[in-house]
Each structure stands twice: as C-alpha cells, then as structure tokens.
Design goal:
This protein is globular. The chain has helices at about 40-60, 60-80, 80-90, 95-115, 150-165, 180-190, 205-215, 230-240, 265-275, 290-305, 325-340, 380, 400-405, 420-430, 465-470, and strands at about 1-5, 5-10, 10-15, 20-25, 30-35, 125, 130-140, 140-145, 170-175, 200, 220-225, 245-250, 255, 285-290, 345-350, 370, 390-395, 410, 415, 435-440, 455, 455-460, 470-480. The longest helix is centred in the first third of the chain and has 22 residues, at about 95-115. The strands form six sheets. It has a seven-stranded mixed sheet, with helices on both faces. It has a six-stranded mixed sheet with strand order 10-9-8-11-12-22, sandwiched between helices. Strands 1-5-4 form a three-stranded mixed sheet, covered by helices on one side. The protein is about 40% helix and about 25% strand. It folds into two domains: about 1-250 and about 455-475, Aldehyde Dehydrogenase, Chain A, domain 1 (3-Layer(aba) Sandwich); about 255-440, Aldehyde Dehydrogenase, Chain A, domain 2 (3-Layer(aba) Sandwich). The protein binds NADPH dihydro-nicotinamide-adenine-dinucleotide phosphate. NADPH dihydro-nicotinamide-adenine-dinucleotide phosphate binds near residues 147, 150, 176, 205 and 251.
Amino acid sequence: MTILANYIDGKLIAPLNDRYLPNVNPATGQVYSQIPDSASPDILQAIAAAKKAFPIWAKTTPAYRCEILLKIADLIEKNHEKLALAESIDTGKPLHLALQMDIPRAAANFRFFATALLHQQDKSFQTNAQVLNYTYRVPLGVVACISPWNLPLYLFTWKIAPALAAGNCVIGKPSELAPMTAFLLSQLCIEAQLPAGVLNIVHGIGAKTGAFLVGHHDIKAVSFTGGTATGAEIARIAAPSFKKLSLELGGKNPTIIFADAPYEQALETTLQSAFTNQGQICLCGSRIFVQKTIYEQFKHDFVKRTQHLKIGNPLDPQTQIGAVISEKHKQKIESYIALAEKEGGVILTGGKKVIMLGENANGFFVAPTIIEGLSPQCSINQEEIFGPVVTLQPFDTWQEVVEQANNTPYGLAANIWTTNLNTAHQVAHALDAGVIWVNTWLMRDLRTPFGGMKASGVGREGGFYALDFFSEEKNICLKIENS
Ligand code: NDP
C-alpha cells in the first residue's frame, strides 16, 4: 500500500505525529493508500521552510523561474500516463478523461504561467514635466493554495503555477479525498530541482490542516477552490488579518437551448456538459432550459443518448461514466434524487441503484439522472448537487429564461445555444455569470478571466488576473528637481 508523504523544505517527510488517513479508490470502495493526517506542527514546519526560501526565490529573475516551471511542465508531460492512471484511481473518473483533460491541463498550467511571467509589464504615468509615477509588482510572501477533489492536479497547478511564477513561496493543501497526484507532483518538483521550501505540500483534513493554514498570520493570501460554505468559512477566518482572498466556489449553471440552436451540436455537447466527470465539474450545466417548441423532441433525444452512456470501471477505455468521489457524496446525490421525487419531479432516466459486478461491486456509482416537472424554486433547482443529476425545464421567451436562469444564489457559468447573434448577445449580457459559452462548452483560453459572481466566488483566476492576485502593485512617485 502506498504511503504518501508531505513535501516540506524540498524533502518528502512523514507527518510529525505519524498519523495517517485511509485513501479510498471510489471505483472499488477499497482503501489503497495512506495519507498524512497532518496537524499544526506540520504546517508550522512548512511555513518556516517557505519563509526561509522566500527572500531568495522572490529575487530570482523571471527567466530563472520560467526555466524551472517549464522543467516541471516537461516532467508532467513525461509522466502523463502514470499521472492519469493515478488520477483515475484516486477519483473514479474515466481514465481517458484524465489522459485527455486533467493531466495535459496541469502541464499547460505550468507552461502558461512560466511564459506569461516573461510578458508582464509595469506602468508609468507622466504627471507633468517634473513628476513621473511608475509602478512595479512585488510577490506577497508565503501564500496558501487549497484545491478540491474533482479536478485534483488540474486545479492544484492552476493555483500553484501563478503563485510560484509571481515569486511567492507556497503551502499547497490538496483535498484529502484525492491527494495522489499532488504527492506525485512533489516528486517531480524534487526532480526539477525546485529550490527547497519554495513549494510545500501538506496533506490532511480541510477543517483541521486547511483551517490552521488559512488562519496563520504568516500566510499573506489564500487561493481557494471548493464549496461555497467552505469559502465563507475561509473568508471569516482570513478577514481579521486582511489576507488577499481568491475564492472559486460552487455553481448551479444554466444551459439554455433555443429552438434555433444547432440541434445536433447542442444535444451532444449538453450530454457532456451535464455528465462529464459524473457531473462533478463546477462548470457542468445542471439546469437545462429548452424552448417549448423543441422541448419534447430534445427531451426524447437527450434521454435516449443519456441511457446509452456506458457506466463502468474507470480504467476501461469504453467507460463514459465512472464512480463519484466517495460513499458520502453518493449518498448526498441519492438524497437529492429522493427529494426531487418528493418535490413532484418526474425521473425520466437514472435515479436507480447501479449494480456493478466484480471488483467494482462496492464502488460509488450513480446513474446519470434527468428530472423534469420541478419548479425553479425547489431545492433541486436551487442547490448544488455536484453529481450526474440534471433538470429539464421548458421556456417561452428569452426574458423568461433569463429570469429563471438568474434565480439561484450562484453565478459561475452559463451555456447558451442559438444561431441568432442578437439573442446570444442579449442573453449573455443579461445573465449573472462570470463565464458564458455560446454554442460551445468548456472551451478554455488560459488568458481569459475565470471566476464567478454572487455565491460562486470572489476574484478572477487566469492569465494576468492570477499573476496580479499573487502580487502587490506599488506606485513610486518621483519628482525631478530642475537643476
Ligand atoms: P470543499 O469546500 O469541501 O473542499 C475544498 C478544499 O478545501 C479541500 O482541500 C478541503 O480539504 C479544504 N477545506 C475544507 N474545509 C476547510 C477549511 N475550513 N479551511 C481550509 N480548507 C478547508 O469542496 P470539495 O472538495 O467538496 O469540492 C467540491 C466543490 O468545489 C463544489 O462546490 C464545486 O462547485 C467547487 N468547485 C468550484 C470550482 C470553481 O472554479 N468555481 C471548480 C471546482 C470545484 P478536505 O478535502 O481535506 O476536506
């Protein structure tokens, strides 16, 4: 059984209390590795190492930092298959998804920020002939990066790479439910000769290890992706010490399909935006609004295609739907399906226990589920389920659908399908969402701002937004005396 270690001061070390947590393979329900159950002394050790490393790392040239981060990207690519297999086993996601999406994106995150840092520019403002203002950016110091279990290495590196690129030293806390690729990343960082203490990865329980990290006075910023309730707790702890906060939180994203949508493309992509990664992507569309004139046709086709999705062993290349992350999460999803029936919903497909055989008999599988007949106000249409469960709702006009789409506490992403440019613009402008796709989904350009409105978060990640978050901008006002 693999025993994971913390990565502190450039070394892989056991937790000081020598305590471990079981790590479960969601597709089998079996414990297959042990994770450090780190406590405050481990965090203190990591912070001390990061503080020691910071003055040197902060003064390195962008070219030097770029070179090291590119080495890490190269090593992620070299270990692509090993990392993808680890991600699939750790999370239950189909192996092909980890091969095609998670691991390439982790390498791209390092490559993108390594080179973005070379293109940062400072500003100058000539006030008059004697006075010049100029700005420059300084790293913050030691920062915390806390990531969730759904896209483990993808989201962990999305934070770590810009933080390191901007010259900070980092304490990373991956999710206790999916820690394996963060552990493998620490081995790659050692191989890439990242200087000791620049990146530290401490495993453990969020409410204990994560909370202590967030509250520590030497942590200058917290970049967090996870649930809205956890984000609120982190904001509460961080506020008294005025730490910079970037919070990427939950969503209840609408997919809006107009009658003039490119039908086949809308149908196929909506299948993906509903059920990719078992619906456990913050950008998945869980409320599908379909214009009345095509509602019955779309419902029929969507249900039929969903029923053809292959649920199975994540390591099987044919599998389209793997396991959800944990027994507890499976129960949460099932409780929402039961509630949907209680609230008057009609289950069009799914909603039943999935019977798996052999080594997957005790895995955490949930069938893709489509529900109709629920009011926009009910819990299923208001609360984030974060599983393969979507609702279908008919609408008449764009004004009506915008009102319904905006009618949740969240505002992360939205998906619009129409061939009418006016409709696309009108609806996109009226929606409360930070990320809006028209006639496509999950198309990412890493330079663009990424983040949510309302209860979906505070701040933007991506491109220079992330490099700016992980630095302070200073303005120098210089008066030149006439000689
Ligand atoms: P959680 O909020 O439960 O956990 C996220 C991370 O925070 C984990 O590493 C967790 O550790 C840690 N954590 C938990 N409690 C605390 C605390 N009090 N202080 C510090 N850290 C803490 O989210 P999930 O892991 O369950 O992820 C699913 C959620 O993430 C969904 O709501 C989803 O929408 C959201 N998400 C948002 C994205 C976005 O970009 N907006 C992208 C992806 C997901 P541990 O796991 O050990 O408890």
